[in-house]
Amino acid sequence: KAGVTQTPRYLIKTRGQQVTLSCSPISGHRSVSWYQQTPGQGLQFLFEYFSETQRNKGNFPGRFSGRQFSNSRSEMNVSTLELGDSALYLCASSFSPLTSGVTYEQYFGPGTRLTVT
Amino acid sequence: AQSVTQLDSQVPVFEEAPVELRCNYSSSVSVYLFWYVQYPNQGLQLLLKYLSGSTLVKGINGFEAEFNKSQTSFHLRKPSVHISDTAEYFCAVRVGSTLTFGKGTMLLVSP
Asked: pLDDT below 50 — which residues of chain B?
């Protein structure tokens, strides 16, 4: 079974630009979560999607947005990039959303390393 | 709100020695607890999880953790480490739909 894939793996952008990152979950998984990882703040939850609906959102500004398609693939977008947005962005998929009665494991992708200059 | 504290940012240890990585959490409700490992330039891999039942949980690669409700701890242990265990380890707690991670502990195994 193929794992979670994220594209691109590395990205360099300039301040003020926008960026779109893509995540393909494991086949059959319908829940996709996004996390930001930085040396200073560690791993922080961005948002979770299930069946094309955002179910939960972390404490990030509105410049961070996402969506999920009918095939469960997800994208996240960051507009008006700032230097502080430089981070590793991780996507995780799960069979079911985190709020379900049964806890399913989250499988993480390798991440997209975003550098903002 | 819940929080996770990993008491050590780095733990150096010699190969074949035992190791314990400490994790404390705060939450006013029941939690699910996890340990993840991250190797350089990779995503997170689940080592083990505590959902309910036995407080001693065994995971992959010889790791185990013990859930202690009274001390709100979930420490990770391995009786004998290998060079290949060098990585960053993250403790995480889930309450409802939110997964909160600790800052991570870098395990450095030397020969």
From this structure: none
